[in-house]
């Protein structure tokens, strides 16, 4: 019987460490919660398979349907976690999306993309793009998922994410335009506390994506360097930042870039004062959560 190695070759505190034998140990693992009916809100949820080949799945959240003849906007969500932790099936993201679905009266679909470093980047980007392509298969009402066929208005699609999930949502919006994806119309892009790298090379990103420099010349980390940015398929963008977020300056740069790059849409800005990165998950008692949710819901509705 072989003994697992105790020698650590790479350590990224807060995310994961890698042992000499290739074993990955995360600092934080998501708590799985099953889908079902929420008796308080009446929201139903279920898990669906996006691709049987890759194993990519998603969780769909359906609010109470008051009028079946009136289809609802579809919010496609990409969870945060530095591309390497987090899950669409965790309690934190399920609770957040349930609240959003209830208040905004939308259908939501949170994508369970494959995580690095077991699945090196850009796999998470590819999975995220594949999820929107899967949604587009429902444009004629004959897709593989009945809830989307019956209740989703694919002319009102919102892409959303926080942290690394915001990076993925932006990437998918650009791909939808650059690749001329038919069958969906992206009306809103919700970017919350985005992760767009840093000015200097980012060691953890470079480890998870060996083909990247981990710096500003990578268009996935720096949208200003993306030659397809002006092709982004979206009408309106809301950039939500936190005053004390260590990534705030990159979010501000993204907001400025979207305001001057000529993509043809409108970009808005909202800042939560005195808060840090993704505080609405890490500091659930914050008084700034409700104003943030109100801002998000208002953006989705209007």
Architecture of the largest domain, CATH level 2? Answer: 3-Layer(aba) Sandwich
Major sheet, described briefly? 8 strands, mixed
Number of helices: 8
Question: CATH topology of the largest domain, anyone?
Answer: Rossmann fold
Radius of gyration: 19 Å
* Strand arrangement, major sheet: 4-5-7-6-8-9-10-11
Strand content: 15-25%
Helix content: 25-40%
**Overall pLDDT confidence:** 95
Number of DSSP-assigned strands: 11
Shape: globular
Structural class: alpha/beta
What is the highest CATH level, the class of the largest domain?
Answer: Alpha Beta
> What order do the helices and strands follow?
EEEEEEHEHHEHEHEHEHH
- The CATH homologous superfamily of the largest domain is named Alpha/Beta hydrolase fold, catalytic domain
Could you describe the 3D structure shown?
With 302 residues, this protein is an alpha/beta fold. It has 2 domains: 30 residues, no CATH class; 271 residues, 3-Layer(aba) Sandwich (Rossmann fold). Helix content is 28%, strand content 23%. The strands form 2 sheets. It has an 8-stranded mixed beta sheet with strand order 4-5-7-6-8-9-10-11, sandwiched between helices. Strands 1-2-3 form a 3-stranded antiparallel beta sheet, with no helix packed on it. Helix 2 packs across helix 4. The chain is globular and about 60 Å long. 43% of the residues are buried.
């Amino acid at each position: 019987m072989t003994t697992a190695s105790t020698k650590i070759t790479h350590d990224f505190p807060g995310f994961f460490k890698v042992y000499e034998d290739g074993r990955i140990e995360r600092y934080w693992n998501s708590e799985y919660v099953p889908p079902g009916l929420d008796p308080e809100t009446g929201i139903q949820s279920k898990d669906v398979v996006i691709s049987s080949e890759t194993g990519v799945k998603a969780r769909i959240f359906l609010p109470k349907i008051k009028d079946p003849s009136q289809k609802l906007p579809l919010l496609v969500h990409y969870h945060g976690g530095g591309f390497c932790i987090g899950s669409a099936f965790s309690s934190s993201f399920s609770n957040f999306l349930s609240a959003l679905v209830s208040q905004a009266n939308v259908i939501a679909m949170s994508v369970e993309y494959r995580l690095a470093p077991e699945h090196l980047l850009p796999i998470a980007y590819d999975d995220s793009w594949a999820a929107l392509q899967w949604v587009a298969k429902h444009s004629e009402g004959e897709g593989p998922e009945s809830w989307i066929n019956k209740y989703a208005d694919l002319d009102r699609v919102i892409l959303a994410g926080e942290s690394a999930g915001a990076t993925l949502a932006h990437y998918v919006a650009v791909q939808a335009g650059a690749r001329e994806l038919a069958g969906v119309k992206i009306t809103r892009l919700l970017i919350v506390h985005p992760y767009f790298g840093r000015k200097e090379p980012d060691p953890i990103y470079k480890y998870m994506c060996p083909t990247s420099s981990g710096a500003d010349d990578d268009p996935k980390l720096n949208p200003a360097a993306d030659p397809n940015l002006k092709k982004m398929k979206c009408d309106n963008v809301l950039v939500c930042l936190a005053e004390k977020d260590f990534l705030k300056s990159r979010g501000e740069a993204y907001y400025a870039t979207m305001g001057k790059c000529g993509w043809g849409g409108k970009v808005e800005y909202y800042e939560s004062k005195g808060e840090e990165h993704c505080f609405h998950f890490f500091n659930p008692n914050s008084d700034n959560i409700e104003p943030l949710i109100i801002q998000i819901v208002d953006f989705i509705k209007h």
